[in-house]
Amino acid sequence: MTLRRLLTTGNITFVAVLLLLLALPAFSTAFFMGFVMTQTLMLGLAAATIVFLSAYGGMVSLAQLLMFGIAGFAFGNAALEAGARGLSLGWPPWVAVAFALLFTTAVAFLLGALASRTTDIYFLMLTLVYGVIGYYVFAQVVPISGPGGVTRITPPPLLATGIRLYYAALVLSALAYVAFRLIGRTPFGLALQGVRDDPVRMASLGLNVPLHRTLAFTLAGFVAGLAGLLNVWWNGQIDPASISIGPTLVLLIIAVIGGISHFEGAWLGAFVYVAASNYLRELPLVDRIGITPDRFNTIIGAIVLIIMVLSPEGLMGTFENLRGRLRRFRPPPRGGSAAHQSSVDGSRPAGREPARTAENG
Amino acid sequence: MAAGTQIGRRAPDGAPSHQRSLREHLPRVAVWAVTALGVLWVLFLAEDTPAGPAVSNPGQFLVTVLDGVTFAGLLFVVASGFTLIFGLMRTVNMAHGSLFLLAGFIAIQVQQAMVGKTRNIAPDEVTLLDWLVPLLVGASIAAVLGIVIQQAFLKWNQGQELRQALITLAISVILADQMLRQFGGLALSMVWPGEVTQFFTIFGQRYALSRLFMLAVAVVVGVLLWLWLTRTRMGMVIRAGVDDEGMVRALGINVSLVFAVTFFVGAFLAGVGGVMGASFAGAATGADGNWLLNSLVVVIIGGLGSLKGAVAGSLLYGMVIAFSPGYLPSRYTYYSVILTFVLLALVLAVRPYGLFGRAT
What we know:
The complex is a heterodimer of chains A (361) and B (360).
Chain A: H1 3-6, H2 9-23, H3 30-57, H4 64-79, H5 93-115, H6 120-140, H7 142-145, H8 162-183, H9 187-197, H10 199-204, H11 209-235, H12 245-258, H13 263-279, H14 296-310, H15 314-329, H16 336-346, H17 357-360
Helix pairs in contact in A: 3-8, 3-11, 3-12, 3-13, 4-5, 4-11, 5-11, 8-11, 9-11, 12-13, 12-15, 15-16
Chain B: H1 22-45, H2 58-89, H3 96-115, H4 128-154, H5 161-183, E1 199-202, E2 205-208, H6 209-231, H7 233-243, H8 245-250, H9 255-281, H10 287-302, H11 307-327, H12 336-350
Antiparallel strand pairs in B: 1-2
Helix pairs in contact in B: 1-12, 2-6, 2-9, 2-10, 2-11, 3-4, 3-5, 3-9, 3-10, 4-9, 6-7, 7-9, 10-11, 11-12
């Protein structure tokens, strides 16, 4: 791969955004960094695992917030000293981090193996059931969730300040973004996309379809676990209610707002969601049209409804569509028609309508 | 509806059936072993549990079975609507729980208006009519809302399963928030008619007649549904549509009308279940999510789109819910929810598409 081939619009934009985010703490308020940007990166990282499973595997998972929560609970139980809520194992912070990630990955492997033979809408429902049962497990098994949640969790000393946590979230997000994109070109990623498009054909070519699905789910669980660790460090606590059905749907909504087959969309959706939840209540005119802060969910629901009705590919899909349309009016630059073609192809839903849909009826 | 379930089924892992090795038999053997162990445990071994082994405490065992069967009745009513809609249209209606809760809230309002009191309604003030009319009103409103949702949001994107699931999901978020605004966050409850609010004695245990009444309603609903699907022309078209929608369309049948009617009936069933649920356990914010989960568990166990599967799934899930609190060792009672998951895992290990389901 030569340097020249790396200079695509997408890559340049990525580096520019990354530099902007790296410099951002220098000229914005602590509130904005802590409550908007750190949360955006964290939720975006978790939502990116939904996008990963959906775009490459054709599996829309509602269990990613559960993985997020499991990692948080595992860290809280392992790291806190005696006397705190939860199991209070009192392990050194980095041992607790390793344990939390290993445990989350193991759970993801088991759940993924169980779900690996189901597809499409069945997978969506099964993972929703995972998510809700997982919530009940933490809500009912009090020794591991402490009565009313595990509180007073502190990050490892290395990440003790808010700004360091922001950079940790930024580095992890950037790594995950690049890694997810690169995986798409590895043999594993290509096989996974083959499974998405035609599992029967891939199986008859000798590929172990359930194994590929399981491994993809495991990897997604690991990354969601990373996001979950950031979340407990940022929040300082975790309670079962934070992984109940409402927040579970929120994570999917974030992925949907951004565009469920675009990795960038995960963070874009997270930004829109977090910004809306922080600032929508402060808009001057919202009271006039009968929208009070309590009705925040109605607004979020309406936004998702509108997005799904107009363009199921979310903001990124709409954006690419617009770009494609703009190019049509301009005289094509060198190789422009090819680029246009690919951008239209890119905006087509990946894995949205598998070939089998036609046979359903 | 489940006719020919075996024919269309194909294993996505594509393993040829004549090469069954020990490895492939393992899940089946494990499932039977766990099931046998469970039965053995409940019958003879369950010492140190709240209920005790069935041989030494048959009354408690019988009551638990009754609890399971009656709750399964409620599960069936709700889940049959869900599976009916999915079976014909491949639409996963994520707003099913919202329709359930909405019908419950509306029925409570209607009942309060009919009795003329808003609180502390005593069972003997409620006649059978004071229960049935709210049931019909609540369920009808849920059904009308269901058909509005179908006509406005689901008619034009038929076949895009994920998009439809997400649209109904967004609708359920909006409905949940609006119901919270309208009816508040406190639990309201519907009152069973006075005639059935009594207890009778069975094996030395008192048992509520209202639970059997709930089962009776569920059986009536189930029989009507079965008659409708097997004995009427519309039912015949629906069953044909489940198997081959394109062919039905080609024969000149107005499939859009059939879809609308099916969605109406499915939402109506959610509403009937919601009113029964509001009488059984009250209606409160959060019940919509719980009952969406319950419907999902039932249809995942039983197989999507199959009425038989809904019966089987309801019974299995109802039994697990009834037995797990009583028959786990007292120290571990709070692990009961995990048993739901074990049930799911056992079924999916041998039948990834549920007991009566088929791969699409």
